[in-house]
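User: Hi! Is it possible to get a structure for several chains at once, not just one? Here's what I have:
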Amino acid sequence: MRSVWIGVALAAALAAFASPLASSLPDGLERVAVDLGFARRAVPRGAPAADYEAPGLERTALGTAVSGVSGVLAVALLAIGLGKALRPRKEIT
Amino acid sequence: MHVPDGFLSTPVWATLDAVAVGSVAVALRRAKGALGEKQVSTLGVASAFTFAAQMVNFPVGAGTSGHYVGGAMLAILLGPSVALLAVFVVLLVQALLFADGGLLALGANLVNMGIVAPLVGLAAFRIVGSRTPRRAAVGGFLAGLLGAEASALAAGAQLAISGTAPAGPVLLAMGGVHLVIGVGEGLVTAAAVRFLCRARPDLVPGLETQRA
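Assistant: Yes, the chains can be modeled jointly so their relative placement is included. Here is the combined structure:
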């Protein structure tokens, strides 16, 4: 399991260092929604870190990095937990 | 590519939520007892990388950006059932923690990015074949490109059926912009496959590993 956490740490590093450099332009669907005039139909919704902005660190690169690392850890824990639950059971009968 | 709440009509999101629940149930049943220690590790690391890579939007011109989605790559690594579960975990965290993608639209997003992209991508990868690293990389590129394009057209069709936008323009616009984003998806997928051919050839299905 050790190599797994090295892999997860590399993913966290990608989230921490690359995501603050990400383009903030509208993505493909957002662009189409603006061009075809249905962008305003989107229902805004609250979340602990909506739009990858950590509470107290809004609109900062650090906030995005903190969000990214938190998300990577949450995804890794859920995926590994799910994977372990899906391993074959040892007992018979 | 993440559809927010409000874009789809109730019959459309409700139907896709039902399809998603059924698909997750089938995937769980198919994956149950089938995951070895190695696949659990691959699932954890691949899901973490998928989430991280989805945060990195790259500009594609005309004031628009796109990002890698990863459905095809996950299917190449883990097969379509486990890939669906991995995409589900990523979408769940994105929707619940970061309000990225709708909650009612979670089923639509899972169908587009967790079913359509992996199945189309995996089909392309298998048709090209992966006996040599070069072939596997070409297959990876086409898997990423066609998977992204297919899921964009699926999202476009859902918007059209919802009456949100007329079918012709929305399919043309979604398909067009995601052709460019899909080239990025294809390049990342090809690079990832190429890297694994060197570092972990055991994880690339169909690759003939000759020992010297």
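Chain B is about 70% helix and 5% strand. Strands of chain B lie at 58-61, 64-66.

User: Great, thank you!
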